[in-house]
Amino acid sequence: MLGALVSKLTGVRLPRSLKPADATLRFVKPAELRLDLVLQGGRRRWVLVELQRSVDPAKRRRWPLAASLLFGQTGALGDVVVITARRAVARWAERVACVRTRLGTVLQLKPVVLHLGASESEALLDERHPELALFAAWAMQHRHGPGARAVVERAFELTERLPRALRRAQQRAILSVLSERMLELLREASMNPDKIPETPAARKLRLFLEAQGRKKGRAEGRAEGEAKGRQDALLTLLRARGLSPSQDDEARIRACAD
Length: 258
Description:
Elements: H1 2-10, E1 19-20, E2 24-26, E3 32-34, E4 37-41, E5 45-51, H2 59-74, E6 79-84, H3 87-95, E7 98-100, E8 106-108, E9 112-115, H4 118-124, H5 133-138, H6 146-159, H7 164-177, H8 180-190, H9 200-240, H10 247-255
């Protein structure tokens, strides 16, 4: 998926030999750097990936340190890829890992920054690469307008092209990266009877949201039933021991949900 994303947005192809590796980097001293993703291919090829939602000053030290560690281990320079949906974060990421001493020593790491803006999101809605639809939806995490909703609906439509084993996972992943405000807007739009004719993308999203809602309702119903059963059992136990809970006591017990 990363190879397709990088190729689509930069025209550069990553080596096919890159595979997911342990994303925890260890030092001689008991310290660790945990990154979002580390890919390694053979003994000398590596890529570090960070999904950056906001500015994080600590990355000024962590990115050069992580790259230096792998450079020292492999003897080869790999890539640090930063993916963000915000232009301001993209500008920050390009220059944050640059420090200079008063004497003139410069330590700099300039990562490959992939900014997923509006135009990039449209490019990621590619029928030939439906797995990239997840990134298009992820780029909508801070947007809530009609255009953003259209991107999410189209992402759901393209997800239908994935193999069954991956389809549901990507659908859930798309919903997980959206803001609560966007999710609420999508639910409201899916229940709008005036939205006729309904597009195939909107229909797929509506059906998935309805299925998720039914599952949530059943889970809440089971939880409510189990709570009531525990409440009844507690009241019965108290009465069996000769205790007589007052109306206020019973109300407090009934108000407990766990």
